[in-house]
Amino acid sequence: MRNLRFTISYDGTAYSGFQIQPKSDTIQYRLEQAVYLLTGETVKVISSGRTDAGVHAKAQVINFTTTSKIPVERWCLALNARLPKDIVAHTAEEVLPTFHSRKAAKRKTYCYTIRSARFPDVFHRNYEYHHPTHLNVEAMREALPCLLGEHDFTSFCTVRTDKEIKVRTLYEVRMETESDAYLATGKVDRIRLIITGNGFLYNMVRIIVGTLLQIGEGKRPPSDMLRVLEAQDRSLAGPTAEAMGLTLWKVDY
Amino acid sequence: MRNLRFTISYDGTAYSGFQIQPKSDTIQYRLEQAVYLLTGETVKVISSGRTDAGVHAKAQVINFTTTSKIPVERWCLALNARLPKDIVAHTAEEVLPTFHSRKAAKRKTYCYTIRSARFPDVFHRNYEYHHPTHLNVEAMREALPCLLGEHDFTSFCTVRTDKEIKVRTLYEVRMETESDAYLATGKVDRIRLIITGNGFLYNMVRIIVGTLLQIGEGKRPPSDMLRVLEAQDRSLAGPTAEAMGLTLWKVDY
Lengths: 253, 253
Prior knowledge:
The structure is a homodimer.
Chain A: E1 2-10, H1 27-39, E2 46-47, E3 56-66, H2 75-80, E4 87-95, E5 107-115, E6 129-130, H3 137-142, E7 149-152, E8 167-178, E9 190-197, H4 204-216, H5 224-231, E10 246-252
Parallel strand pairs in A: 3-10, 5-6
Antiparallel strand pairs in A: 1-3, 1-4, 2-3, 5-9, 5-10, 7-8, 8-9
């Protein structure tokens, strides 16, 4: 048995998330189907972590074991030929039998993109959340540093979760802004929140973004982020931001 | 009658081009339909120029005359609510009755994007042409300066055209390259050709790109661009590059 590890991208728009489930189209199903079409084998694809319905991935890491003798350098092309166009394998390598893409993941980086302009950008319409009214970028930035380091993130975790330990460490929480040279008025029209941690609770990035948006809208002061974090109470945080803006950016091992 | 001018973006993937035609879905049809739904009027939408099937626009300019009294600042939101999500109006203004978006256009800029990597980028898969094998970027760059200025571009014009005068002036022909920070190997993985002129012949940018790709592939020397240009013979140029990589970037008046 060989253990193969891949970096894959996907546009999550058309899928009910990563994890296989009955009667739904999922990334895992499509990957396992592609392997089956290629090798005739039924494999179980493991990922660094599930992504929810509508969430995208730029460099998700997966692995599975196979008895196939296809050389590793041919796998990406062979899988891509059997995958829909919204899922693409980029790199493949043979790894030790003990490698497990979820258990071995050390750090993950997510990016949440907000289109902050009166109208959506057609070319990114499925990959960013459109927020048509003004956001106070400085207030949003001010709210971020308190999230860095090791904390109990209960306030930013959907209640229906099976994970009992809610302590995670964030290594970087950064906001980038962009202006479109041709369409915009010189104002910020895209905001990216880039967040790296040793792991993330269920909906954690999206609830942080939902809270951050309320700060940007002036509905809460920047100091609310710390207050909410310390309270360890989901009901004090903002709503879960829409899935379409979220992309799993990379996974470090 | 008021004459209204708009900047619009569209993802051309799903359309048979800009210009209205029987039994096909077109950008012009969708725009006229949206105005009809809004005002009950049948208008004729004029653009700075047609774009072909599959070609996109970041900042196309259109105008039409209307008797509607809707204030100009409400038009974009009202039209967008009646347009599919792949067509978006960004700016609206009332202009002189004599303004004609095609006749008044002074300069147009197109961008042709090539994904130059082994595998496509899922997030841009409909907006760039995927070229999986190596391209010699330096050779491509060397071929460009000869196109600047006023020339007869017969060699870069599809034969079935009704325009008799094939002389156009190019003000800028520039190549930009990008590397993806997360997926790539440090190599160039995206090439953009940005080209500004006082007008373009039918398929002109796509035939220039088709010729340029052959230069990048090493099938022709960079000096071929000048040789082909001077010959005024379409049969000497490369093939017409795929529509999906082409975007009308902006129009100057």
